Amino acid sequence: MFEKFTDPARRVLILATDEAQTRNCDHVGTEHILIGLITEGDGVAAKTLESIGISADVIGNRLPDMGHHQPHRPGHIPFTPRAEKVLEQSLRETSLLGHDHIDTEHLLLALLHDSEATGARLLVENGSMDVDQLRQHILRRTAASQRAPETVGPTNLTSIRLTDTEHTSCAVAAAKAGQRIDVWMREKVLDAAREHPTDTE
After folding, report:
1. Helices (H), 55-117
2. How far apart are CA 112 and CA 128, in angstroms?
């Protein structure tokens, strides 16, 4: 799966591991992934979190109260089961949006998927939005980062190009339906065609 990660997304995981080591933790948790997303700095996730006032200092100051730190063990640090689920969910988020590679925004969306995870709770407790509002905010930022939107999906359904606002609305609706954006849009196009059949004879 890691071959699907972009370089920024891989940096997030490296930074998350570094954060866990710095704090003498024997695991990489969702809270460390959150700090990795913030400190990566250049990705959509970092800029989105900065836009709502989430910083490494704000989150870092909360971590000592979130669990027991164990003596640092040299070598590989495993991910917690919940952190592993974030990585798995990031692939699903990428597919739902019709993207080819896992980037920082997909990791952030995946982090929010488990609202009981430490990373998600820290985001909600220190931000000004609930989980659903945060998700829509991330999707808007993701759409805005697409400078020249391509036709959606592997099949060229139409030659229409979507504005950022239109793309965001479709992405949110598709995600709520649990579908890839290209699949969701194809169904909508076909539904509209069935409602207004054309006699081709």
Report:
1. 56-60, 81-96, 104-113
2. 14
Tell if the pTM clears 0.85, that is, is over it: no
Those residues whose C-beta lies under 8 Å from the C-beta of residue 134, and which sit 6 or more positions away, are 52, 112, 123, 124, 127
The tens place of each residue's pLDDT in the chain, 201 residues long, gives: 567 888 989 999 999 898 888 888 888 989 999 889 988 888 888 888 888 887 887 787 777 544 444 555 556 788 999 999 999 998 888 888 788 888 888 998 998 888 888 888 888 888 767 778 888 888 877 777 764 444 444 444 444 555 656 666 676 676 666 655 666 666 766 677 667 666 554
- Residue 182 to residues 93, 98, 143, 153, 197: CA-CA distances in angstroms? 13, 6, 14, 5, 22
Sign of the torsion formed by the C-alpha atoms of 142, 144, 148 and 153: positive
To the nearest 10°, report the CA torsion of 60, 61, 65, 70.
50
Query: 77: exposed, middle or buried (C-beta count within 10 Å: 0-12, 13-18, 19+)?
Result: middle
What residues have CB less than 8 Å from 193, skipping those under 6 apart? none
